[in-house]
Amino acid sequence: MHDALPPLAEKVEKEPLAGGLKQRHLTMLGLGGVIGAGLFVGSGAGIAVAGPGIVLSYLIAGALAMLVMRMLGEMSAAMPASGAFSVHAERALGRWAGFSVGWLYWFLLVVVLAVEATGAARIAHGWAPAVPQWGWVLIFMVVFTVANLAAVKNFGEFEFWFAALKVTAIVLFLALTLLAVFGVLPAASTYSGQPVGLTNLTGHGGFLPHGWSGVVSGVLAVVFAFGGLEVVTIAAAESDDPARAVGRAVRSAVWRILFFYVGSMLVIVTVLPWSSMQPGKSPYVMVLDHIGVPGAGQIMNIVVFVALLSALNANLYGSSRMVFSLAERGEAPRGLLKVSGGGVPRRAVLASVAFGFVSVLLNLKWPDSVFLYLLNAVGAVLLFVWGLIAVSQLRLRPRIEREAPERLILRMWAFPYLTWLALAAMGAVIVLMLTDATARPQLLWSAGATALVLVVAGARELRARRARA
């Protein structure tokens, strides 16, 4: 029976995948999966609608992501599995839930993978125009396919150093901008020659130039930037001590990401007037230019390039493990269960990268039509995934407490009140997206994709019941 939770008194069954990921790999994977081009480039759109209030927007969105990850960390520590929240949803709500959330998340990762590959290729093409953009895409996809087909520790090392570079870049950025705020850097003062201080936070319309409606619009602009944290709970199944490793990784990654995101936004709107932000230009580049860092644009190009490749690597890994987990539970072709001698699900990797190649071709050929529809279809899927995580935790926590309380290595805060609060916040985001003309198409397309998967899941469930009868 797929809709029943296995006896919790029994030992958690070990995954057939090989271990090899260390604690440092998981921690950096959590950071690397979420710190991407959305932060370095896309954050300018949030600043434009919220002004300095973008700091509050990131705090609100980050708090929601933190609650979701705490719930997911609790369940993953108690029941580690390569399918993570898909497995938890199946155990809590039935096969339809595990099938739906698993396939939707896989679809989300392989479509976003195309965006990352194309973005990285565009930057590389600017550096080496002799190689066409499609050639760079091919190079990246081949390199990271090979990396994911090798032992999982190789993937972990790739992601560790990619994420380390991004984290180092943000730390250096924060250090330089703090020196700018206090006037230590000679080129970091205001245009009148005085230290910038806090004048940009209180001037130009005040801290909330567009009121609380601007903060709310900022939340819509930034909440999806926290997607990607979930991969760390998928990877935990391939660590030496999954239960403890996922707890530590969730604790450290969430707090650090919140610090990096909120800290970056705070220093950006402190150093520069929010009204000076230019659409499509990285606020990080603008700040570095203002404080006199030579070659700021190229420096950030390198950081964004690494961020895109890091996210591509993490998404290929996460998608392959999710579809492998679906195959384990009979929700995907059984042929995907083939595992190499090194414990790598190579067919699952190849299946994920194959669809990734299709997505890239659609992005290169029809970026404003076919691929745009695909991208809109997955744009708000993250909310569905987060919602099922919360509902699953509401169902599973009482049973874990009753049958195997020793597995609660990591506990959700103030259960069940904060879980319900997170669900209410997700509902509020959906309502806000419906009322926002730019976000509404994305929500409707994603709702359509979700409904289609739910119909397929329902039909499979009905067929299974008839077979049993």
Offer a concise description of the structure.
It is built from 19 helices and no strands. The chain has 469 residues and is an all-alpha fold.
How many strand units?
Answer: 0
Low-confidence stretches: 1-5, 188-192
Radius of gyration: 22 Å
Largest sheet: none
Estimated helix fraction:
over 70%
Task: Report the structural category.
Answer: mainly alpha
Mean pLDDT: 84
Q: Enumerate how many helices there are, as a single number.
A: 19
- What general form does the structure show? globular
Q: What is the element string, with H for helices and E for strands? A: HHHHHHHHHHHHHHHHHHH
Q: In percent, how much strand structure appears in the residues?
A: under 5%
* Terminal Cα span: 14 Å
